[in-house]
């Protein structure tokens, strides 16, 4: 089997018989990331810690995680890849909402790419002491990342709910995803 055929088979599996599992893994990753941001926000605004000491959960044990632009960029890249890999399994209104989340994540990814480049080039926008994204000139970093994660997460959840509820019926023997339980699966032969 050629690499292209194997890749096509993998993509078909992710968007048909393994779509629900792929979405669940993706959702787990997103929620774990969200938890880190929420804990960091609680540390700052509820516990009154300085932002530099508010590192979320994992950052308490591994402080370098919070300042690692490579890690943050890697997460943004994983998110972008996740949106693209399971996109074909969405149809109708759920595809529209999934695309909205995807397009917002494209921008979020570009912002993290800009931060990553600055960190490795040693030159920051506006002469700032730390890597700075474009929107960060208007909104502080912690608040900006809460915002970005929220505006990506909201349409993603809408898409997943619509998809689960409105998964298409199989037609002409075409495979559909497994997200709607037995109703969304092709009949066994």
Question: How is this structure best described in words?
Answer:
Keywords: Membrane, Transmembrane, Transmembrane helix. The chain crosses the membrane at residues 70-90. With 189 residues, the protein is mainly alpha-helical. It has a domain at 62-167. The protein is built from 7 helices and no strands. The longest helix has 30 residues, at 92-121. It is globular, with a radius of gyration of 19 Å.
- State the separation between the terminal residues, measured CA to CA: 26 Å
- Could you describe the largest sheet, including whether it forms a barrel? none
* Secondary-structure element string: HHHHHHH
Number of strands: 0
| Percent helix range | 55-70%
Radius of gyration, whole Å: 19 Å
Categorize the overall geometry: globular
Keywords: Membrane, Transmembrane, Transmembrane helix
Transmembrane segments: 70-90
């Amino acid at each position: 089997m050629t690499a292209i055929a194997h890749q096509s088979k993998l993509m078909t599996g992710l968007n048909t018989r393994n779509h629900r599992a792929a979405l669940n893994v993706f959702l787990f990753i997103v929620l774990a990331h969200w938890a880190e941001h929420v804990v960091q926000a609680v540390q700052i605004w509820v516990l009154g810690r300085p932002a530099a000491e508010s590192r979320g959960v994992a950052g308490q044990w591994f402080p370098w995680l919070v300042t690692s632009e490579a890690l943050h960029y890697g997460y943004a890249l994983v998110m972008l890849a996740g949106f693209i890999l399971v996109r074909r399994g969405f149809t109708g209104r759920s595809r529209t909402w999934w695309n909205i989340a995807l397009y917002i994540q494209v921008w979020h990814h570009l912002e993290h790419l800009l931060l990553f480049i600055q960190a490795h080039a040693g030159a920051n926008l506006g002469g700032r002491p730390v890597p700075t994204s474009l929107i960060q000139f208007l909104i502080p970093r912690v608040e900006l990342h809460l915002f970005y994660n929220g505006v990506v997460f909201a349409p993603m959840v809408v898409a997943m709910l619509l998809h689960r509820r409105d998964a298409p019926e199989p037609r002409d023997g075409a495979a559909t995803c497994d997200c709607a339980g037995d109703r969304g699966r092709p009949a066994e032969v």
